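Deliverable D5.2: sample structural annotation.
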Amino acid sequence: MSYISSYFHCVFSTKERRPLIPPQLQERLWPYLGGIARQTQPEHHRKLTFQEEFLALLRRHRIACDERYLWE
């Protein structure tokens, strides 16, 4: 089994880039968002295995493949 470590950089902004999030809230917001990202992955993968999710992605986008060549 191989190991993959994925890092995502999420960017969002307020309308017209207005400074609506005060600095004192930002200090609490960033760790909160990071905690949500860490918690949702294990819950997400309890529903589908990586293989099941990948095959669903291929089917959803109508990408033909032969499973014999996908997995070891």
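Annotation notes: Helices lie at 23-47, 50-60. The longest helix spans residues 23-47.
The annotation will be released with the project's public dataset once the embargo ends.
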